[in-house]
């Protein structure tokens, strides 16, 4: 009798585990870190590469990937932009129009709208450049729990800018959903972007 009780207890526990894993199987599995509910929705008031006001409503209804950088960045920024462009190109043609990459320059002193346009156009037509006053950029960086800083200028007046290498991904409703790092492949990024689009559909 005692053995039967133990058997039924073990069987019940196994059934509970099976049911619980079955309940979670319908949820999307992302390669990037899921930050749903951990950060505020997408919101900014900046200037785009055409010199026009830019806000989150400009690309409403699209999945958006936001990256903080600067055009004089020697390594992280060009590599990240190239990888993001590959990720967009890896998606089906009908999905690419529902994806926009936001390149936010934290170097407004040097990154004019014209320079931003040249930079982003080089990497892909789904990449949009924008910047703004340092105070606005500081507020935006703080909103997403990151920061940036400026190094001392050299004799030519050139200086480095320190910034995060993270990519923030927002769904079609503008909710913060994913945090991507540089260890993801373009194919993994593309799969996550598509998963968000499928989820909304």
From TrEMBL:
Signal peptide: 1-26
Disulfide bonds: 73-77
Keywords of the record: Copper, Disulfide bond, Metal-binding, Signal
Domain of life where this protein originates: Bacteria
CDD domains: SCO (cd02968)
Positions of Cu cation binding: 73, 77, 163
Thioredoxin domain mapped to chain residues: 21-201
A molecular function (GO) term: metal ion binding
Protein family per UniProt: Belongs to the SCO1/2 family.
Record's protein name: Cytochrome c oxidase assembly protein
Species whose genome carries this gene: Tamilnaduibacter salinus
């Amino acid at each position: 009798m005692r053995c039967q009780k133990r058997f039924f207890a073990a069987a019940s526990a196994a059934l509970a585990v099976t049911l619980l894993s079955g309940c979670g199987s319908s949820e999307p599995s992302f390669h990037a870190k899921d930050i749903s509910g951990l950060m505020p929705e997408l919101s900014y008031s900046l200037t785009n590469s055409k010199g026009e006001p830019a806000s989150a409503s400009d690309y409403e209804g699209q999945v958006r990937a936001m990256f903080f950088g600067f055009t004089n960045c020697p390594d992280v920024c060009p590599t990240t932009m190239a990888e993001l462009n590959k990720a967009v190109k890896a998606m089906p043609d009908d999905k690419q129009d529902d994806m926009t990459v936001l390149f936010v320059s934290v170097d407004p002193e040097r990154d004019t709208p014209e320079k931003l346009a040249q930079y982003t156009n080089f990497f892909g037509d789904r990449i949009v450049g924008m910047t703004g006053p340092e105070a606005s950029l500081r507020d935006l960086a703080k909103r997403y729990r990151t920061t940036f800083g400026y190094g001392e200028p050299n004799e030519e007046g050139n200086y480095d800018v320190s910034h995060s290498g993270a990519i923030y991904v927002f769904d079609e409703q503008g909710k913060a959903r994913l945090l991507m790092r540089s260890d993801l492949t373009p194919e993994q990024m593309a799969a996550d972007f598509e998963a968000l689009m499928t989820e909304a559909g």
